[in-house]
């Protein structure tokens, strides 16, 4: 025996209409570093890291990180992971007078309590020579009142890069 579908549909719709409304997350607009003091403080750690790299000041670079921080690069063959010590050694071992310049643009900073993320475009120059561009995705934790980096993941490419910001 066939039952008409209309009564079932009406009952189902009545149930949906009487359900309590579930809050829907409203997208939050991208935050610029100047949105709040916390956003600015987290981004200042990132810019300070690359200021230290330009100055070959590995002590100030190390201070930007928590102990056991991780660096990862997405490569065509997978994900390459390293600790920060190898990176710091390579910056310190650069030939005298060589400036390693990572230029940043278009930062998006999010903060939730003691967690911050910075997504920022970058262009890397070694001396005057362009090396590559990509995106840095950086996670920071606030410990003892200070932001410190615990993870950096980057992409790298040599083609399809926008014009680098002037230094």
Short structural summary:
With 167 residues, this protein is an alpha+beta fold. It has one domain: Roll (Nuclear Transport Factor 2, Chain: A). The protein contains 4 helices and 6 strands.
Task: Give the tags.
4 helices; 167 residues; six-stranded mixed beta sheet
Molecular structure report:
The protein is of the alpha+beta class. It has a single domain, classed as Roll (Nuclear Transport Factor 2, Chain: A). It is 28% helix and 40% strand. It is built from 4 helices and 6 strands, in the order αααββαββββ. It has a 6-stranded mixed β-sheet. The longest helix is centred in the N-terminal third of the chain and has 18 residues. About 16% of the residues have low confidence.
Summarize the SSE layout with pairings:
Elements: H1 5-18, H2 37-54, H3 58-63, E1 65-75, E2 78-83, H4 84-92, E3 100-112, E4 115-126, E5 129-143, E6 146-155
Parallel strand pairs: 1-6
Antiparallel strand pairs: 1-2, 3-4, 4-5, 5-6
- Which class best fits the helix and strand makeup? alpha+beta
Straight-line N-to-C gap: 79 Å
Fraction of helical residues? 25-40%
> Number of DSSP strands?
6
Give me the strand/helix succession. Answer: HHHEEHEEEE
Mean pLDDT: 84
Estimate the global geometry from the Cα principal axes: globular
How many domains? 1
CATH architecture term: Roll
Share of residues in strands: 35-45%
Described by strand count, sense and barrel closure, the largest sheet is: 6 strands, mixed
- CATH topology tier name: Nuclear Transport Factor 2, Chain: A
User: Strand sequence of the main sheet, in spatial order?
Assistant: 2-1-6-5-4-3
The total count of helices amounts to 4
Which CATH first-tier class would you pick? Answer: Alpha Beta
- Supply Rg: 23 Å
Oligomer: single chain
């Amino acid at each position: 025996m066939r039952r008409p579908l209309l009564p079932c549909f009406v009952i189902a719709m009545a149930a949906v209409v009487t359900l309590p409304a579930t809050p829907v997350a409203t997208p939050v607009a991208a935050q610029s570093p100047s949105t709040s003091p916390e956003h600015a403080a987290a981004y200042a750690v990132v810019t300070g890291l690359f200021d230290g790299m330009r100055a070959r000041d590995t002590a100030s670079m190390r201070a930007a990180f928590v102990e056991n921080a991780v660096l990862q690069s997405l490569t065509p063959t997978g994900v390459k992971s390293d600790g920060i010590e190898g990176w710091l050694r390579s910056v310190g071992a650069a030939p005298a007078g060589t400036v390693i310049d990572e230029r940043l643009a278009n930062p998006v900073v999010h903060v939730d309590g003691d967690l911050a993320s910075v997504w920022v475009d970058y262009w890397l120059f070694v001396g005057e020579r362009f090396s590559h561009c990509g995106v840095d995705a950086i996670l920071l934790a606030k410990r003892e009142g200070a932001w410190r980096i615990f993870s950096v993941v980057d992409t790298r490419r040599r083609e399809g890069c926008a014009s680098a910001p002037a230094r």
